[in-house]
């Protein structure tokens, strides 16, 4: 068995040998138990601190030392965020080894994790998660989470990493209160939408169906309908409905998908003050008019 002890002699944890190969893997396991990221942990054997790459081999007993965060200047905070935004792995790692708090606030700037996620810098994202960065922290002028930014930009692998880390897939950003699923739907990020739906993202929070319909993203509309999104949902911000915005935009393929899902033909879109057919007629959306009339809309 592997045994991890505090300096006081209290046992922190034990685990069968062979399940963990090196010090880094042991620290990641201890992170789940202690809440301390691997950069704040030191594992000692006979008062010697082991490197993360060291193999465990015949070692059975380790002493765990948990470090406080180092004092950090405003410049160091900004340098870490800048390095994360550029995907500079070595610079990020050096800061975290100080160990620097990855969540120190910056006025109106993205946190390091959010900045890395926005750029799709997966190795930096992984490292910051290993440093126990707050995966649901909102930051930047729009008040976005790292997951929201990755979804908006369509970085599918980054989204996968954050979902694996159990980031909140339904947390809304402060500005316009958009969920990750709504942002991905609005921006046509099909692979990301699929990932979020597979992770049981709530399909009617912040009306992603309206967002996709307004942009004419027929494939995403189809995915959302397959996931039982409410076909007649009303967007709480502007009172629009999916069929209304699709008709107004002339998005015939989206209209067809909504009609096949039996969206209500006659209900008014309160945001426009008209039915789908009246909207299509007023705006000259001939293909949409034909589809609506063929489906029984009252002329």
Element layout with pairings:
Blueprint: E1 2-5, E2 11-15, H1 23-34, E3 41-45, E4 48-49, E5 61-66, H2 74-86, H3 89-96, H4 112-118, H5 122-130, H6 146-153, H7 156-164, H8 180-186, H9 190-198, H10 208-215, H11 218-226, H12 242-249, H13 252-260, H14 276-282, H15 286-294
Parallel strand pairs: 1-5
Antiparallel strand pairs: 1-2, 3-4, 3-5
Helix pairs in contact: 2-3, 2-4, 3-5, 4-5, 4-6, 6-7, 6-8, 7-9, 8-9, 8-10, 9-11, 10-11, 10-12, 11-13, 12-13, 12-14, 13-15, 14-15
Pfam families: Ank, Ank_2
Keywords: ANK repeat, Repeat
Protein name: WarA protein
- List unreliable stretches of 5+ residues: none
| CATH fold name of the domain at 207-299 | Serine Threonine Protein Phosphatase 5, Tetratricopeptide repeat
CATH 4th-level superfamily of the domain at 207-299: Ankyrin repeat-containing domain
- How many individual β-strands? 5
Give structural notes:
By secondary structure, this protein is of the alpha+beta class. It has helices at 23-34, 74-86, 89-96, 112-118, 122-130, 146-153, 156-164, 180-186, 190-198, 208-215, 218-226, 242-249, 252-260, 276-282, 286-294, and strands spanning 2-5, 11-15, 41-45, 48-49, 61-66. Helix 3 runs parallel beside helix 5 (122-130) and helix 7 (156-164) packs parallel to helix 9. Helices cover 44% and strands 7% of the residues. It has 15 helices and five strands. The protein has a five-stranded mixed beta sheet, with helices on one face.
């Amino acid at each position: 068995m592997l045994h991890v002890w505090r300096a006081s002699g209290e046992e922190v944890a034990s685990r069968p040998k062979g399940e963990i190969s090196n010090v880094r893997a042991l620290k990641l396991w201890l992170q789940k138990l202690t809440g301390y990221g691997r950069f704040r942990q030191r594992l000692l054997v006979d008062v010697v601190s082991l490197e993360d790459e060291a193999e465990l081999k015949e070692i059975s007993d380790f002493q765990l030392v948990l470090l406080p965060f180092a004092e950090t200047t405003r410049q160091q905070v900004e340098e870490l965020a800048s390095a994360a935004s550029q995907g500079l792995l070595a610079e990020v790692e050096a800061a975290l080894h100080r160990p620097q708090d990855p969540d120190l606030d910056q006025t109106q700037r993205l946190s390091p994790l959010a900045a890395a996620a926005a750029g799709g810098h997966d190795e930096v994202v992984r490292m910051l998660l290993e440093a126990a960065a707050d995966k649901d922290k909102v930051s930047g002028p729009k008040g976005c989470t790292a997951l929201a930014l990755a979804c908006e930009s369509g970085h599918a692998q980054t989204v996968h990493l954050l979902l694996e880390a159990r980031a909140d897939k339904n947390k809304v950003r402060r500005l316009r209160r958009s969920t990750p699923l709504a942002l991905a739907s609005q921006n046509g990020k099909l692979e990301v939408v699929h990932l979020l739906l597979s992770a049981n993202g709530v399909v009617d929070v912040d009306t992603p169906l309206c967002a996709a319909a307004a942009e004419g993203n027929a494939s995403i509309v189809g995915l959302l309908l397959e996931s039982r999104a409410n076909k007649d949902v009303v967007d709480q911000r502007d009172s629009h409905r999916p069929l209304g915005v699709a008709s107004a935009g002339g998005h015939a393929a989206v209209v067809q998908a909504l009609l096949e899902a039996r969206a209500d033909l006659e209900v008014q879109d309160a945001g426009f003050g008209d039915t789908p057919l009246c909207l299509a007629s007023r705006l000259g959306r001939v293909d949409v008019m034909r589809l609506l009339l063929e489906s029984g809309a009252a002329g």
